[in-house]
Amino acid sequence: MGLIEIFTEWFGRKNQKIIDLNLKKERKLLSKELAELENERNNIRDYVNRLDSLIDVEEKFISEPEKGGN
Fold this sequence. Notes:
Number of helices: 1
Largest sheet: none
Radius of gyration: 30 Å
Helix content: over 70%
């Protein structure tokens, strides 16, 4: 094997290691981002449910005087 072939193989292995490490790092970052987005989604769902409850209470409150007035 010539020096160029040895260097090419060595460089290819090193390059692949760097790619693998970057993929692991990206995977961890994406997992963290996904967890944060899921948490935010759950918070938004909670807020929407609270708003729906408040709207229901308000609608009942508004409709009660109408029933009493008739």
